[in-house]
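Second opinion, please. Please look over this fold, written as tokens:

===
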Amino acid sequence: MINIGVFVGSLSQNSYSQKIASYLMNKNKIAKFFQINYDILPLYNPDLEKNPPLEWQVIRSVVDKMDALLIVTQEYNFSIPGGLKNAIDVLSVPSPQPHIYQKPALVITDSSGARGGANANAHIQQLLRYIGMNVMNKFVTIGNVQGIFDDNNLTDKKIAKRLNNLVNEFIQFTETSKRS
């Protein structure tokens, strides 16, 4: 069984991104999902690499144990949420080896607008490819996200089916990546 680390872009426990991530983590039983919290990470500063903060060491060691990473996020100010960008910066440094280099990744974005966080999705995929991650070639956005939930339950059957199929594809992508 593969281990998938999950990063949620919003730090709010009530965000739609959190609801999507929770749905995916609870619905799928053919992989183990681990939500990776990054809200207490100190801002990345290369001067601290000689003696990295404990929080950096912990998140790096957790991510090292993951076979793949799933990022579920909303768009902030036309781009990536700052906390998520900081976590990616902390993980992108080879200390002593790259922590996310060639690791499979999937990006899912959402928003209350029709475009579903398309700008954030494009920015994150570009960033992850630049730092050497093996990003699954899917552009997944969920627009008008407020309309697919009833409280915490995903009620839109079309979106649910799309997400379930997507995660199955990502698991196959990860397994193929591990063999090559």
Observations:
- Helices lie at 16-27, 54-64, 82-91, 118-130, 157-179.
- The two ends are 17 Å apart (CA to CA).
- The CA atoms of residues 41 and 96 lie 19 Å apart.
- The mean pLDDT is 94.
